[in-house]
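Reader question, answered in our methods column.
A reader sent in the components of a multi-part assembly and asked whether the whole thing could be modeled at once rather than chain by chain. We filled in our standard form and ran it. Here is what they sent:
COMPLEX SIZE: two components
ENTRIES:
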Amino acid sequence: MRILLVGAGGVGTAITRIAARRDFFERMVVADYDEARAGAAVAALGAAGSGDPASARFAAARVDASDEASVAELLERERCDVLLNATDPRFVMPLFRASLAAGAHYVDMAMSLSRPHPERPYEECGVKLGDEQFALADRWSQSGRLALVGMGVEPGLSDVFARHAADELFDTIEEVGIRDGADLTVEGYDFAPSFSIWTTIEECLNPPVVFETGRGWFTTPPFSEPEVFDFPEGIGPVECVNVEHEEVLLVPRWVDADRVTFKYGLGTDFINTLRVLHQVGLDRTEPVTVKSSDGMQVRVSPRDVVAACLPDPATLGDRMRGKTCAGTWVKGSKDGRPREVYLYHVVDNEWSMKEYGSQAVVWQTAVNPVVALELLATGAWSGAGILGPEAFEARPFLDLLERYGSPWGMREQ
Amino acid sequence: MRILLVGAGGVGTAITRIAARRDFFERMVVADYDEARAGAAVAALGAAGSGDPASARFAAARVDASDEASVAELLERERCDVLLNATDPRFVMPLFRASLAAGAHYVDMAMSLSRPHPERPYEECGVKLGDEQFALADRWSQSGRLALVGMGVEPGLSDVFARHAADELFDTIEEVGIRDGADLTVEGYDFAPSFSIWTTIEECLNPPVVFETGRGWFTTPPFSEPEVFDFPEGIGPVECVNVEHEEVLLVPRWVDADRVTFKYGLGTDFINTLRVLHQVGLDRTEPVTVKSSDGMQVRVSPRDVVAACLPDPATLGDRMRGKTCAGTWVKGSKDGRPREVYLYHVVDNEWSMKEYGSQAVVWQTAVNPVVALELLATGAWSGAGILGPEAFEARPFLDLLERYGSPWGMREQ
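And here is the structure of the entire assembly that came back:
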């Protein structure tokens, strides 16, 4: 297998470090808009001293992810079988189309962006997450190539858990509820999110989407249906609220469940922070006019200023402490008896920093597409068209994830 | 009396409207950095149709409040007896010095700014409010001229109340506690402060100062000693916290009290908003670098961006509803028996808008220096050197304030 990895940010870099220890692929070209960043990721593999000359399989390249034609050209020139998209969601569509054009498989960790309903944003869906991608479903099917979408941790592993529950743990499913929580803290900061505040605002203030059989997909106001979920492995109870997320769009396509939700364990303090930013209007992306420090009238996006006030989460790994948990809570029945389980995956930041030099949230996102690529390379997973992680048998994925040194768990509730 | 009013913003404009109805002065020159703004304030007096040609006593001028020499020159050219400072506190020192240089009396509504203690900001005072002014006390005394400092509503009327309590209501005073609260709301906004957010952040995040006999002045962390104070005339209970304010520095100089505090009725929501802005670092004035909407790297002050996201409070008078209350709570004993009173002044926004076209908070600040000037013009008050409002007999002030159509109240607790 020859892989074109687009994006050498935190997740992309962690992907190279995880993949370097596996021998299922022949070549990985690491491409970024900033070629130096791609080069640094590749160079670090040699420095890591993995024991074999793994870095010989890697090469750095420059690419503009928004330029479909040049991405397709790079795929062809490097004879890549698959494009792995590790950029931010704004680049989903050009990379997705470039793969189709070049006859390559495609894997991403998010889906194309949503747009709220123009009149009833907190009741009805407008353009849903992934809609732009699924609009090309027939062309992908006809091409015989696979677009595996939403194959990170959430979406991704959470979807695999949903499929596993449907196949092995339940006869009927009332609700699939993805629940994400952490107890991460950052030394020296009162407030330092462990992930991009820009994206978090986008996720949390977009109308959350919910699926119900009969009703289909619908939206609610932000921060709806708060609940306190007790996370495993010492993380403990965290306040969770509905948030727009890809699983709600993917799971119902392949798994039979009466209801699908995603709740994010933001915690009371973080929810309060987002509410205040929204009330003051600091979440807005439309620019406001202010005087710059050299006395000019300039126009800046308030949300960019919020991001600029906070430390870059990618640089905080060394100061972070704690664990992050991704998982899928499932309620239903088995053999005529009610059952409730939570399938989960916990990463301790201390472990991921020591083992891979990547912070926990980033590493947890990165490991899953590598596992998926290995399953595709070995033929354990195969398919054509646009498929979510829950379209495939879950057991091979979960077993291979364990062999990557990263076990998952299950709690009967 | 010939008055030079410097500053034709909200408070300055309200001063002209209040003064125009009084005949104790011969001339008022309204000077602003923006001469058009001064001109508009003067022109509006004619339009108001007060019945007599009051506006003939007024003139507009341009002045740079930071330019001591040109302010002194304007005082002399216009043969003004007194400078009334209605600018923001950054201009206290140049205007204060210009008055001394020109041999004019001086009245302001705030005092020179503080600087936190470099090592122990939340325990010890650094440079206190007014310190820079009081450093010139001897020169003012020798000049025979009066600098009446802190003569707005708070500080100002609140200090007059403290003196009144000491003179007529108490034998011994345990605590003088200024308490400020309001029930103002702004139609059409979730969050719209009725005063400058920039200044509010400055006031509320500076270390609050407290005075205690024996210990002297000391500071605490922001938002310390929260209490719910029940404000009169239907405003009701509001959460108040310690805030740095001039009364704490002024009252102990002339009134014998074991403890002096200032608590601001910000309310739970507003305190929460300020805490979040501080936590994220959006209260900072040091610039951060962001990309502007035309793609340039620019440096902007986060606090300026917060202000730019909110509506200009000076423009909100028509959409405001409710009342604002300034007052002084005093606890002590009279005739051997414990006593507690709250002396207060309430302005209803509907009334101040209808009567003067000024919103309540602005009008309440503006009326007090006009009353004080009238007392000085008639000789009811007189003095030399730097004095606070509590250095003068309170009764004439309180009686004259009533004659301005703005009664004060007292509640026995």
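What stands out: The first helix of chain A runs from residue 10 to 19. Chain A has two domains: 2-107, 157-412.
Send us your own complexes using the same form.
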